[in-house]
Design goal:
This protein is mainly alpha-helical and 500 residues long. The chain contains 22 helices and four strands.
Length: 500
């Protein structure tokens, strides 16, 4: 009895440490502002501010002109902004907290299949590996990973042989979650929806369900997807089905509608399996070898030692194979370019494969437990080293906030405007930060900034080519003079220009 209690106490301590330590790490980075605040997130934050005034039915633009993500990501950001416009707090509420509450809650539901120890290993591999990137970066595709884990859980514990309203409601919910994934991450979501459809087909054949009942299941699954697209449908009804027309032209076109070349077939396969490199924090060749050996050992035990696989494990394996096959089919046959971000969310596929491999194998648990400890140690060491360096030496959120506060405090009550150099032309981050800190509207498109006051501040990053040309283009030398400059530790220069 004492030994049993000691094991429980040890398990509780391990689980608590695996949750608290990375939460403390991520919370400090987020609340200190030591994170990226770049083009896409800043654009979405501006859209979310607008959503507070008028509800939007579409989200950010996708990689295909004329097609938009769903509005759910913008709605989430707007929810965070009900409390404050401070991007650090919004990110903490909308991104960080869900990954440290909902994600482990769902993952540890798989303890019924894998056991506690395996779930702790999987959580540690994720949160100290690729997961830390997700909890620090507010970007709509990152939400798809959490939704995909929920989808796998719902399908794993779905009993298609049951009858009644409960099975219909569960399948409807599965369709809704699958549709949400498309709304957050279109390319990955399409592969997931197709993979779930294949999973349902194979499952029905395997358990020999009546074809009429299968048709009902598929119809309900489709209805759930349609419900998730209600904002899209309302928007299309109001705007002449513009996105649907664009989507049809993309599908029927024999060529890419984007004149940019993406990853080739070989690079697509490498990018997919490259997720193992980020999970294990090991070189690609080592990571793929470890995973391959684990898969081989699992198959050996299954065939030679006649190790049984439970029904939920079979469902997990079948679903992962179906989704992987659908994604590869979709990406390898796509005429439009495939990019690295299209593989966001696929980490869950490898983690759950590992969960099945480790179950009932003490050898693999020990091996991947050691790998998890290595991953945690590497991440904590990097954090300890970076914590000694001022965040102002990087072009982080806190640095950009620091720059805006300098301008706001220097200008006092004077009328002024701001121009910031950006390779992409648009400066969403400074437009948002000026709105929050200085309550000042400065267009993110410099060409739209028609305000011509006597006081202009120029924000010039260290990477700006031909800095003098940028200064003279915004404030001609014959009309303006420099009265003050500030040099920021990350290399950015603020130039104060006053009309002569």
């Amino acid at each position: 009895m004492k030994l049993f209690k000691r094991k429980n106490i040890l398990l509780i301590l391990i689980v608590f440490s695996s949750l608290f330590v990375p939460f403390f790490l991520a919370s400090r980075l987020v609340l200190d502002g030591n994170l990226n605040f770049w083009y896409d997130p800043a654009r979405d934050f501006l859209l979310a501010v607008g959503n507070l005034e008028k509800i939007t039915l579409i989200g950010p633009t996708t990689g295909i002109p004329g097609i938009f993500y769903g509005p759910y990501w913008i709605w989430l950001l707007s929810f965070g902004m009900l409390f404050t416009l401070d991007p650090k707090i919004v990110i903490f509420l909308v991104v960080t907290l869900p990954y440290f509450t909902l994600f482990p809650y769902i993952l540890f539901k798989f303890r019924k299949i894998f056991g506690w120890s395996t779930c702790v290993i999987l959580w540690t591999l994720f949160i100290f590996g690729p997961g830390l990137h997700y909890v620090l970066n507010p970007w709509n595709p990152h939400t798809s990973l959490l939704l995909f884990l929920l989808l796998v859980y719902l399908l794993t514990f779905l009993d298609l042989e049951r009858k009644g309203k409960s099975i219909i409601i569960k399948i409807l919910l599965i369709g809704f979650v699958a549709g949400l994934i498309i709304n957050f991450h279109i390319s990955f979501g399409l592969g997931v929806v197709l993979g779930v459809f294949l999973f349902l087909i194979v499952s029905v054949i395997r358990i020999k369900i009546n074809p009429k009942q299968w048709i009902v299941f598929v119809a309900v699954y489709g209805a759930g997807i349609v419900i998730s697209f209600m904002p899209f449908i309302i928007f299309e009804l109001r705007h002449g089905f513009m996105q649907i027309q664009t989507a049809l032209s993309v599908i029927t076109s024999g060529d890419s509608v984007v004149a940019v070349k993406g990853l080739n077939d070989g690079q697509i396969v490498i990018e997919f399996f490259g997720k193992l490199e980020k999970i294990f924090l090991l070189p690609f060749s080592f990571a793929i070898t470890i995973f391959g050996l684990a898969a081989g050992y699992f198959l050996y035990r299954f065939k030679k030692e006649k190790k049984s696989i439970s029904s939920p494990e079979k469902k997990v394996l079948l679903l992962l194979v179906c989704v992987t096959s659908a994604l590869m089919l979709l990406y390898l046959s796509s005429k439009n370019p495939v990019w690295s971000y299209h593989f966001i969310g696929t980490e869950i596929i490898f983690l759950l494969f590992l969960g099945v491999f480790m179950h009932k194998s003490l050898v693999l648990k020990i091996i991947f437990g050691c790998v998890a400890l290595f991953v945690a140690y590497s991440t904590l060491s990097s954090f300890a080293a970076s914590s000694k360096i001022s965040p102002l030496t990087n072009s982080s959120l806190i640095t950009k906030e620091y720059i805006v506060r300098i301008i706001h405090q220097d200008a006092k009550e004077k009328d002024y405007t701001v121009f910031a150099y950006s390779p992409s032309i648009y400066t969403y981050e400074y437009s948002y930060l000026l709105k929050w800190i200085a309550n000042k509207d400065v267009p993110f498109d410099p060409g739209s900034n028609t305000n011509k006051p006597d006081l202009i501040y120029l924000i010039i990053p260290s990477s700006t080519p031909n800095k003098d040309d940028f200064i003279n283009s915004k404030t001609p030398q014959k009309n303006f003079k420099t009265t003050k400059t500030w040099k920021i530790p990350d290399g950015t220069t603020i130039v104060k220009r006053i009309r002569k």
